Amino acid sequence: MTNGVRALGSRTFQLSVPQRIMLLTASVAAVAVALFVIVVRPLPGAPTALTLPWVLWAAAFTISEALVVHVQWQREAHTFSMGDLVLGAGLLLATPRELVTAQLVGYAVTLVVRRKQRGIKLAFNLAQSALGGSVATSVFAVLTGPAGLWDWAAALIAVVLITLTADLCIFAVISISEGRTSLRPLLEMIGLSLPFTLGSAAVGLVLARTAVHDPAALALLAIPSFLIVAAYRAYTGARQQQENLRLLHEVTSLLHGGDTHHALGDFLDSVRSAFRAEMAELVLAGSGRDTISRSQQGSEPVVMVPLEDADDHARLLRLATASGGALTTRTGSGRGRQLEEYVATRGLRDGVAAALRTEDRVHGLLLVAGRVGDVTTFSGSDVALLETFARHVATSLERGRLEENLRQVTDLKEQLRHQALHDPLTGLPNRTLYLDRAKQAVDMAARSHVWPAVLYIDLDGFKPVNDTYGHEAGDLLLRTVADRIRSCLRPADTAARLGGDEFAILLGGPIDRQGVTRVIERLRAQLEVPVDLGDGRIATVGMSIGIALGEEGIADADALIRQADIAMYAAKRSGGNAHLFYEPGLGEQGDSRQDAEAELAAAVRNGQFTVAYQPLIDVRSGRPIGAEALVRWVDPTWGVRMPDQFIPLAEETGLITDIGAVVLRDACHQAARWVRSIAPDDELLVTVNLSARQLSHDGLVDEVRAALAESELEPRRLVLEITETMLMHDRETAAATLWALKDLGVRIAIDDFGTGYSSLAYLRRFPIDMLKVAREFVDGLGRDANDDAITRAIVDLAGTLGLLTIAEGIETTQQQEHVAALGCDLAQGYLFSRPVDADMVMSLVRGESWEDVPGQVEEKVASARGDLRGRARTPR
């Protein structure tokens, strides 16, 4: 016997779908009753009929209906039972009246007790069962009478007719539900049900004939009967599993659509169709407000709307999770009643829900309710299928979350890589990236003989603009110049900012003097246009340009860049705003790097280096408590030179150790003077930058000890600053030197923390007392969420480890407020003071106001952001 229900339904203009099904049920029941009363009841039993109570036949039908095979075929659900086996045997062994009565009673018990059917579903199934039984017994009686057919052939024909009757009734329900008629579903149902029906009936007939002629042989039929049933159940189970996998693939693939709203709507529509339900809901629990998406028959899908009252869904979610991941109205338990009440409030009769779970979290709830067709309800296979859907949805959500996290990590890594290779102010490639591209161009030219050209540019007139209008105006000027340089180049060319007001250009080959000259003409035409600095301020700058053309014999990219550098210096010394091509011998005329080395060595011998101090401010009290020592070269010819103009050369030549010693002695001497001018217990610090050469210098510890002893400065008031990169060059030597310095009592600070090899390992290994937050992060406070997060993480890390934090480069009130809110201990920057002389610092730490200091001298710093902190090490 079969029963199946097609999914979708529609409404007519006169009667609703349930009303039309009720009318059909009543008609079928009326025909069945009339046929039973008029035809079946007077019929005699077959000659082979046994005298058995009809209750035994009812029990046999009840047991046979419990032994079912459920098959999902496309959008129909088919249930095959062993009732046809009992029916086939009963046609030979029972009277027609008792057989139909027993069949109806046994089927009713199964539907009510086991399948929990009520109302119109129960009525329809009983009506079509009664009609089928009456038709089968009537036809069997006719065919075994005057027709004279063999009783087994008549029984098989009768069973075929009862199957066709059931299929026709179900087909009528499908047609009513869908509002249209198509013979294809009927043919598919008949083709799927008839083989099992005939097989079951044939087994029943064999059992009946054996019981009549050789009852002892029934035992021999038990084994093959069992094997036949088991094999068919396995076959139909495999077929159902294959169909479920197809549905699962089709439906869950909709979750990966490009448009989330359309994808969710299509997904829920498909789920509702797959389960032949009137409604499907998806509740997603997020870190913020929960959302609900719903697909309901006859309505437009609702996608990801806020869940106003989440109590019902939260309760269902807890119940589904507690019950193993799924919840159904068929359980009859308290948990099932909760779901039944929920779906009843939406005008539906039954439902099933499953939690969206992965190993570490619950993502939400997937629910379907209201079986379409009013004949069947959700079965155990539906519960299992919905659980599978829920697991795949949860996995898709988890994978989407992981993919999003991975994308964010990838984006962050790419962002950090970009920051490491580009100038933060102008966005141009920095020195590192420029050198790499120049090396590639020269290496390729050595093979292809297509040589590039290098232009080394120094801006003329930038210093007065920066000093007169401030660093913000200077930054704007540098950004504008960078944009104009970029606009003059081809896509294959590279423009870079090397630091301060120095730029470089790599022109791809082949290119000659005429080609370079045309580029320079475009550059000059661009820079001749005044730059609007805002507030009615206008500025114009020029360029000193050195050019080196690649050619055979060039050793490497460094040699080509050195030639351009020499040519640029020569152009600068010739009066500026000019360009020169490098020619052999140009460096021998005093314009070479060797000449610059001689100048630097002479400056060290002649004591041309002085120290300026930028005050350190206690963020909590706002009181100056010391200063950072910054070196300057007072050149008799060129005036004050900033550190980026000589520190790289000093590092290369080793003169940095002599310069560093000058800065260290002066800082200790001045700090001792400041201490004597304040109360003994007042906090006062002086910070001195160490270069990589100094840190690896064997005599550094002795120099520090001698400077402290000579100045009588307490060691705790001296802070030595090093960078993360310096620690990584030679970790063993660095560790030994720092611990030796720590033994003297001085303090150690990590400068520009977060821009190099930020590692908890070296914070544990080295004796660190302070972390300086790099100005790159401070500059973006309040404007860049990444900078806010990084700065907060550095301050929190320092607090956890018991370290002080210094925020450098404070230039605006907003930045000051942010570092104070984050809990930084100290700060420095142009908002508080430019670098000043030692006497000015002493006046400030004594508590005198800026205006109270007679003859104050404020140093006008000549470089942009990267040069504001002149230090005795290679600047970034």
Structural summary, described in words:
Helices cover 53% and strands 17% of the residues. Helix 4 runs antiparallel to helix 5, helix 14 (462-469) runs antiparallel to helix 15 and helix 20 runs parallel beside helix 22. The radius of gyration is 46 Å and the shape is elongated. Helix 28 links the parallel strand 24 (804-808) and strand 25 (826-828). With 876 residues, it is α/β, with parallel strands linked by helices. Residues 1-13, 71-77 and 852-876 have low confidence and may be disordered.
List its traits.
alpha/beta, 17% strand, eight-stranded mixed β-barrel, 25 strands, six-stranded antiparallel beta sheet, 876 residues, disordered N terminus
Task: List the SSEs and their pairings.
Layout lengths: L3 E2 L11 H24 L13 H13 L1 E6 L2 E6 L1 H11 L2 H19 L4 H25 L7 H28 L4 H31 L4 H36 L6 H15 L2 E8 L6 E6 L5 E5 L4 H12 L3 E3 L5 H11 L6 E7 L4 E10 L8 H42 L9 H18 L4 E8 L1 H8 L1 H17 L6 E6 L2 E6 L5 H15 L3 E4 L2 E3 L2 E8 L7 H17 L5 E3 L11 H13 L3 E10 L5 E12 L3 E3 L5 H7 L2 H21 L8 E5 L2 H5 L3 H12 L6 E6 H6 L1 H14 L2 E7 L6 H6 L4 E4 L1 H5 L5 H17 L2 E5 L4 H10 L3 E3 L9 H8 L31
Parallel strand pairs: 15-16, 18-20, 20-21, 21-22, 22-23, 23-24, 24-25
Antiparallel strand pairs: 1-3, 2-3, 4-5, 4-9, 5-6, 7-8, 8-9, 10-12, 10-15, 11-12, 13-14, 17-18, 17-25, 18-19
Helix pairs in contact: 1-5, 1-6, 2-3, 2-4, 3-6, 3-7, 4-5, 5-6, 6-7, 7-8, 8-9, 8-12, 10-11, 14-15, 20-22, 20-29, 22-24
